[in-house]
C-alpha cells in the first residue's frame, strides 16, 4: 500500500484551494416569497410544485391570533402555502394567474368538499408591490367571473405545518389522489374556468 504523506495532503489541499479561487465565489440565487390560501394545502402545494421557476413550497397556517397553531388547533387560521420562487424565471403576476385558475374564487364558504374559514381563499402579499399586483389581478378575475370572494391582505406570520403535511402528495400518492378526486377539486376548477383552468401549470394536475 502506498503511504500518503502529510506533504502530499498539503499539496492536494493547496491545489483544491487554488481551483476554488479560480472558480470565484458562489453566486447566491435570488428568490422571493408568495403566500396563497386555496383550500387544502396539500393540493395548493402540489399545484405550485408544477410551476416552472418555483423553488420550494411549504404548507402552513396563516391569519389567526394564536401562537404555534397545529392541524388540530388552528381556529381562525387558513391553510396556506408559502412559495419561494426565482423571479428571473417566473413573475409574481404569473403566480397570481396560476393561483386564480387553480381555485374557485367565487366560493366564500370554503373550497370544494372542505368547508369553513380554514379552507377559504386568500392572497397574502409580502410587499406593497405584491399588494398592487394582487388587486389588479382581482379586477381582471371579476371581469371573467363577475364576483370574487377571495381576501387580499398583507401577510401576517406564516406558521409551517407539521412535517407529515409537507409534500403529502409525494409521500402518500394513493391517498392524496383519492382525496383530491373525491373532493371534486379538479372538476370544480374546470367547471368555473373552462379552458383557462390550471393556466401556467405544467404536467398533469392531481
UniProtKB/TrEMBL annotation:
Catalytic activities: [thioredoxin]-disulfide + L-methionine + H2O = L-methionine (S)-S-oxide + [thioredoxin]-dithiol; L-methionyl-[protein] + [thioredoxin]-disulfide + H2O = L-methionyl-(S)-S-oxide-[protein] + [thioredoxin]-dithiol
Family per similarity comment: Belongs to the MsrA Met sulfoxide reductase family.
All residue ranges annotated as the Peptide methionine sulphoxide reductase MsrA domain in the record: 33-177
Enzyme Commission code: 1.8.4.11
Signal peptide: 1-28
Protein name: Peptide methionine sulfoxide reductase MsrA
Enzyme class, first EC level, given as a word: oxidoreductase
InterPro entries per UniProt: Met_Sox_Rdtase_MsrA_dom (IPR002569), Met_Sox_Rdtase_MsrA_sf (IPR036509)
Function comment: Has an important function as a repair enzyme for proteins that have been inactivated by oxidation. Catalyzes the reversible oxidation-reduction of methionine sulfoxide in proteins to methionine.
Catalytic residues as annotated in Swiss-Prot or TrEMBL: 40
Domain of life: Bacteria
Amino acid at each position: 500500500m502506498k503511504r500518503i504523506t502529510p506533504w502530499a495532503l498539503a499539496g492536494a489541499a493547496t491545489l483544491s484551494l487554488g481551483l476554488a479561487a479560480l472558480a470565484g465565489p458562489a453566486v447566491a440565487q435570488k428568490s422571493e416569497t408568495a403566500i396563497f390560501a386555496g383550500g387544502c394545502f396539500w393540493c395548493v402545494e402540489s399545484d405550485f410544485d408544477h410551476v416552472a421557476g418555483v423553488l420550494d413550497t411549504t404548507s402552513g397556517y396563516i391569519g389567526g391570533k394564536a401562537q404555534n397553531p397545529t392541524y388540530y388547533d388552528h381556529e381562525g387560521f387558513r391553510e396556506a402555502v408559502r412559495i419561494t420562487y426565482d423571479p428571473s424565471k417566473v413573475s409574481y403576476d404569473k403566480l397570481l394567474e396560476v393561483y386564480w385558475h387553480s381555485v374557485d374564487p367565487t366560493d366564500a364558504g370554503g373550497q370544494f368538499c372542505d368547508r369553513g374559514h380554514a379552507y377559504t381563499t386568500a392572497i397574502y402579499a409580502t410587499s406593497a408591490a405584491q399588494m398592487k399586483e394582487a388587486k389588479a389581478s382581482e379586477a381582471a378575475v371579476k371581469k371573467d367571473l363577475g364576483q370574487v370572494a377571495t381576501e387580499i391582505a398583507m401577510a401576517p406570520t406564516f406558521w409551517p405545518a407539521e412535517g407529515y403535511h409537507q409534500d403529502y402528495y409525494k409521500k402518500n400518492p394513493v391517498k392524496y389522489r383519492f382525496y383530491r378526486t373525491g373532493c371534486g377539486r379538479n372538476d370544480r376548477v374546470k367547471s368555473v374556468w373552462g379552458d383557462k383552468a390550471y393556466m401556467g401549470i405544467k404536467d398533469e394536475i392531481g
